[in-house]
Amino acid sequence: MNRRTFLARLAALPLSRAVARSVAWSAGPMKAHIFGSLPAPGRVRRVFAAGPPAAVLAHVLAPDRLLGWPMQVPPEARAFLGPAVRERPFLGRLSGRGSTVPLEKLLALGPDLILDAGTVDATFLSAAESVHERTGIPYVLIPGRLSDSPWQLSETGRLLGAPERGAELAREAERLLAEAGEARRRAGARTPRVYVARGPDGLETVKAGSLNAESLALAGGESVADGPGGGVARVSFEQVAAWAPEIVLTQDAAFFASAPRDDRWRRLPALRAGRLHLVPRLPFGWLDEPPGVNRLVGLPWLASRLHGAAVGSDEPERVRAFHLAFYGFAPERPAFERLLAGS
Amino acid sequence: MPRWPWLILGVLLALAVVSGLAAGPISLGPADLLRALLGGPSAEGQAAMVVWSLRLPRLAAALLVGAALSAAGTSYQAMFRNPLVSPDILGASAGAGMGAALAILFGLPTLGIQAAAFAGGLAAVGLVTLVAGRVRRHDPVLVLVLAGIAIGTLFSAGISLAKVLADPTVQLPSITFWLLGGLSAATPGDVARAAPLVAAGLLPLLLLRHRVDLLTLSDEEAEALGEDVPRLRLTLIVAATLVTGASVAIAGIVGWVGLVVPHAARLLVGPRFARSLPAAVLLGAAFVAIADTLARSAAAIELPLGILTALVGAPAFLWLLARGGRSS
């Protein structure tokens, strides 16, 4: 970069920041952020997913085009994935300073585009722009929260050259969101107060309004924890007792096993009423972990646990149907019965 | 020797205990509190549960951690003849942090994380003493410090590696919270496991309290007075590591206590180890208990203990420093 272009960019910096910010926070129609020129949709053959939500998104839409996983996928999760993606390697993630994939390796992989999904703010946009500038690989950022997943699915499907698949999954997502909305409306003003126990001791939780509590809110529940700052907070057990939540959800199998035997936890009204639920997390989490379209399968499950709504006659079969629709593969029924054990 | 410093320490400790029992998100009046205390742990009702299975274990853990870190800090500051030394000088915190981070990465339950942290702290300090014992060409204290820095750095790199490999939505926050330190998870079982270890470490320190001052002399002078310096040093390291490891295992990394409390204790009762050690133990216990009471009752979410010990400790320390400087 010579001095003139450097100065020009320096001058444009406050402007581009401001633009980025307004884009990130505008409530207008959703729009993919694209750096570089994309290959024609039919010519996208190799997709690098920058982070776990993007990997899930690419996997459900075009499994054959996903180069690998940005996160470690443990063997028990791989058992739930189709043969095409089960053996894909761990590649590392791209997220600014926290990136674990070297740009040279990225170049060597030769992706047609880099796909990122989820949070979009000025930091993410500038990091994406910088990766694109240094590698020349087109970079697509799909913004949106869980409620935007129909749009995310159809838009990404279009960009990856799988528009029919995108439209089909978008309709499915629309249906799941509508059902959750219906359950929410039926419950009316009675919003169950939920404590989400995270971490091995159960004393990390997610705050209401955060990304991590999004599916909980969509299904008509409310996290008892509230407050400023990021999504996850540490609390004391006395605070949990003071909140007296009606339902306790956990994603941690070790905690789920130990809490009913723990002298303090088992005295919580929620546990005494048998309302401690283990959130399934295979192949991807149902609450977050990662915060992607994988959470859709958790919505009917949450609605039934929160409001006692009917899940349909056969829950394992319903979950299996979701897997067939989204992941294009599902193991036999017993695997789903095991998955739902404790939930 | 004036008695007032001990009086102050006693009052402070009593204050810490009372506030620790009285404050919390569930409001209990003095009458409820007293009834619950007298009723014993097996009594029915919410007050009994809050007092006996929540506040008392946590208070005991805070007292234990404060006493342990302060005792370790006082011993190391005497041994290294350096007031800037804290209990993690020999890599105990970094080792414990790596043990805990790996345990979280592998999804172990709480007990496994504690055991891994304790083992990690012991392993780091063990490695440091092993290395220092092999190097004979330099001043042994200097070698210990440098080996501690090097091994500590190695283990810190291990923590960073664990963070990079951790799942960012679930495991990474757990590791971060663990490293920030806190007692929100303290259970009666934790206290029961840590207390014997802390006692086993404090006992030799208290028994040796009159001999530790000899370490302020040079090794030759101390040996001329009949002291087996390497042996005394090793005993101190083992004792201090035991108490630090036990406290880190249940509380995570709580900074600043082991560095600042020994100073405050010396300002109160003078520099002799035989007096500054018990003073530091009392003061540290009271200090961490008060900080932890704030940590759990200031807001609905927990404030990390390490942040509060620094926020409360640093101004208090500066004030003591200014005051001590004037009077001498």
Provide the descriptors you would attach to this structure in a database record.
heterodimer, A: 343 residues, alpha/beta, Rossmann fold, 2 domains, four-stranded mixed β-sheet, four-stranded parallel β-sheet, 15 helices, B: 328 residues, mainly alpha, ABC transporter involved in vitamin B12 uptake, BtuC, 14 helices, globular
Give the helices and strands, then pairings:
The complex is a heterodimer of chains A (343) and B (328).
Chain A: H1 3-25, E1 33-35, E2 47-49, H2 52-61, H3 75-78, H4 83-86, H5 103-109, E3 113-118, H6 122-135, E4 139-143, H7 149-159, H8 163-187, E5 193-197, E6 204-206, H9 214-218, E7 222-223, E8 232-234, H10 237-243, E9 247-250, H11 253-258, H12 269-272, E10 276-278, H13 298-307, H14 315-326, H15 333-339
Parallel strand pairs in A: 2-3, 3-4, 5-7, 5-9, 9-10
Antiparallel strand pairs in A: 1-4, 6-8
Helix pairs in contact in A: 7-8, 8-13, 14-15
Chain B: H1 4-22, H2 30-39, H3 46-79, H4 92-105, H5 110-134, H6 140-165, H7 171-180, H8 188-207, H9 209-212, H10 219-224, H11 229-251, H12 257-269, H13 273-297, H14 305-327
Helix pairs in contact in B: 1-13, 2-3, 3-8, 3-11, 3-12, 3-13, 4-5, 4-6, 4-7, 4-11, 5-6, 5-11, 8-11, 12-13, 12-14, 13-14
Care to give the gist of this entry?
The complex is a heterodimer of chains A (343) and B (328). Chain A has 343 residues and is of the alpha/beta class.
Shape of chain A: globular
Individual helix count of chain B? 14
Name the poorly predicted regions of chain B.
none
Please write the string of helix (H) and strand (E) elements of chain B: HHHHHHHHHHHHHH
| Overall pLDDT level of chain A | 86
CATH topology of chain B: ABC transporter involved in vitamin B12 uptake, BtuC
The termini of chain A sit apart by 57 Å
Radius of gyration of chain B: 20 Å
The CATH architecture term of the largest domain in chain A is 3-Layer(aba) Sandwich
- Helix fraction of chain A, binned, reads 40-55%
